[in-house]
Amino acid sequence: MLDAVRIRQRLPPAPRTRGNRDMTKLARSTQTGTRWLIAAGSLVIVGGLLAACSASPQAAPSSAPSIQVARPDAPQGTLPADLQAKLQEAVDDTLAEYSVPATAVGVWIPGQGSWETAAGLADIANNIPASTDMSWPLRSITKSYTVTLILQLVDEGKVSLDDTISQYVDGVTDGDKITLRELANMSSGNADYTNADFGAAFEQDPTKIFTIDELNSFMLGKPAQFAPGTEKVYTNANTNLLGAVVEKVTGEDFATALDERILTPLAQSQTEYLVDVDRWTAPHPVGYQPGPDGPVAQTQNLSILGAAGSMFSTLDDTRVWAETLATGALLQPATQEEREIGAPLESGPPYDLYALGIGETDGWWGHNGEGIGFTAAAFHNPETGASIVVFMNESNVFVNESEDEGKAHPADQLFRRIAEILKTT
Fold it and tell me: Is 65 contained in some domain?
């Protein structure tokens, strides 16, 4: 792991972990000032923020994929009262254990019913309670959408998972060896963009709206972490490079391609890709990180995550996505089978294995996310048909407040506890 550079250090030293999880080691913007923890690296040319160059002329806009899907319905009725009581106890215990201000949780089981709940304060300063219809950051759940777009293009014959990133983006170290597959499964070895150059650009203008190409520009030419395919280390840069591929091949901006190919077909009207915080207008929670005197509200710049983490959604829309993602409804069956080939991450979020923009934990397939005040988890069990979605408004939480014991990821912890409860129902 590279040494770290602290910029405008106004808070106590932040916990450090190996790898990157949704920028949790990148940004800490607080009410008391802006603090950045950025992996140090060699400089790239930044006269302005240089966009990643395309390897060939811009493609014409592509048509929407041929596979047609219907929005999956939630199970009818409510879950049994005794099961609801067990689930609520797990929610309350997890909030208390990790001192999380608020959560929104949904559990859906075919043949048994649905259950949604919200608890705690979405906004501490204004005493606003969380509700089940609020808009929440998906953070790295966004990665599963981005890789799905790539796999749709594979099904259409527009790209191959064995294409190298150099065919679409110039300047990536080992770009003539790194494949789209390796970017999707986090085995590319490329540098992340969360380095000193990016930190300096952000510090110069914390409100700047970065494009995907601008984010990618900060990792171009940087030394590789390892040879492609030899390790599995989770970075946002992997997915943002794939976002650039989506834009290159479809001839559309990422938000438009996402809307045409996934959000509109699934009627996910409450889900959106947002890079401008002023457009996050739906009722939503405030994100927090632990501070010496309690949770500290985080200032949001939505654009710094790009195609790796800039999506927002609601409980019910995320239920739809969890089921669609895990069942492969938007893809050819053979492509979904290939998608699920994976292995454990050597550095990154807690999954039993990580495959192509999707993780697996004890038979549950989906994705989680964390960063800048929020954690999220969205999983579906194809064997039982059950789905679990958890949103929480605190990130950078450690087990027993100890860096040595690692990240707690409270949303993922609650997902696992609910999954264990469902085993006995």
Answer: no
